[in-house]
Design goal:
Elements lengths: L24 H7 L7 E3 L6 E3 L4 H16 L15 H17 L12 E5 L6 H10 L2 E6 L2 H13 L1 H4 L2 E5 L17 E6 L7 H14 L13 H4 L4 H13 L6 E8 L5 H11 L3 E9 L2 E9 L3 H6 L6
Parallel strand pairs: 3-4, 3-6, 4-5, 6-7
Antiparallel strand pairs: 1-2, 7-9, 8-9
């Protein structure tokens, strides 16, 4: 297959994001030959792409990206679990690295001593994979779904470099987020989270149907599938994040930055009000974008300015 490679830089992605250029399908097919059967030509601009409404095609693209850019082999997810948009997930990791650098003399802290807590790792293990591959960070991945964790375990088992960097933990009490997870001896550089943002299964189903119906032939990427815990919870996104904030108060010195994605900009006002109520010392919103899609993550810490300055990233 002859590839037409167009190295047009995508707008708004982080400068260190390796996905800021249009996909090089010749390179990706070389990394994962099975992707070739899903590649089509966009009749509008004659560029190569895939059908982003086809979940098998999106999974194949993710596999190819992970092999090509991150040297991750045999990645896969079970049927009906979330298939993450890797460029957007990578942006979260890179902006988070910049946030850590602000308290490390402008240098991104790297290596296994930087420990992150992934709340809701899902079956895809994507944040730990990207964080470890990009910066050598270690992770504890938490979920309430034992089957999801088993799939993460399988991914880790297929990639020896991840075995010492990622540990998994089942949250046996779903109403809690940090309780029984953050132990007295733990010290995390950050938490990371892609919270469920719908308030019911019906709302989640309707939203996914709208995405598929509105999908055009450009390079949009959907989150296909998704189990209940991945897509919705009582109270939706704001309910989940509010619970997270109230629990974070109990671990003020065991984590530098608590962070979470916020998909709905209208929720920021309530989030800030809650954070001020519980006494967060520093609160930041980091804006991100992928094409026309806007997202952001909120970060907060209970450490004083002096404690932030004295935090030792080299000995966690």
């Amino acid at each position: 297959m002859k590839s037409k490679t167009v190295q047009t830089e995508k707008s708004n992605l982080h400068p260190r994001n390796p996905h800021r250029f249009r996909y090089d399908f010749e390179k990706l097919i070389k990394a994962l030959p099975e992707l070739a059967s899903f590649v089509i030509t966009n009749t509008h601009n004659e560029e190569q792409t895939i059908d982003f409404s086809n979940s098998d095609a999106v999974i194949a693209l993710n596999k190819a990206l992970l092999v090509s850019e991150y040297r991750i082999e045999n990645w896969n997810i079970p049927s009906n679990y979330l298939c993450p948009p890797i460029p957007g997930r990578a942006d979260y990791i890179h902006y988070l690295a910049d946030l850590l650098a602000e308290s490390n003399n402008g240098t991104i802290p790297k290596g296994e001593n930087i420990l992150g807590l992934d709340i809701g790792i899902g079956a895809n293990c994507i944040y730990p994979i990207l964080g470890n591959s990009s910066y050598g960070w270690s992770f504890v991945g938490v979920d309430i779904d034992e089957n999801a964790l088993q799939n993460c375990k399988k991914i880790i088992g297929q990639n020896p470099k991840l075995s010492e960097a990622i540990s998994l933990q089942l949250q046996t009490t779903p109403r809690y987020i940090f309780k029984n997870i953050i132990l007295p001896e733990d010290k995390f550089s950050f938490t990371i989270c892609n919270p469920p943002f719908h308030s019911s299964e019906t709302a989640a189903s309707k939203a996914n149907s709208r995405k598929v119906n509105q999908l055009k032939s450009d390079e949009k990427q959907l989150n296909f599938g998704g189990k209940a815990a991945e897509l919705w919870c009582a109270g939706g996104e704001i309910g989940f994040i509010t619970q997270m904030i109230y629990e974070s108060v109990k671990y003020p010195f065991q984590c530098f930055w608590f962070t979470t994605l916020v998909s709905k900009k209208d929720n920021l006002k309530t989030i800030y009000r809650t954070l001020n109520k519980v006494g967060a010392v520093t609160i930041k919103t980091i804006e991100m974008a992928q094409g026309q899609k806007r997202s952001r993550f909120v970060a907060w810490t209970f450490l004083s300015a002096l404690q932030q300055k004295e935090w030792d990233f080299s000995n966690e």
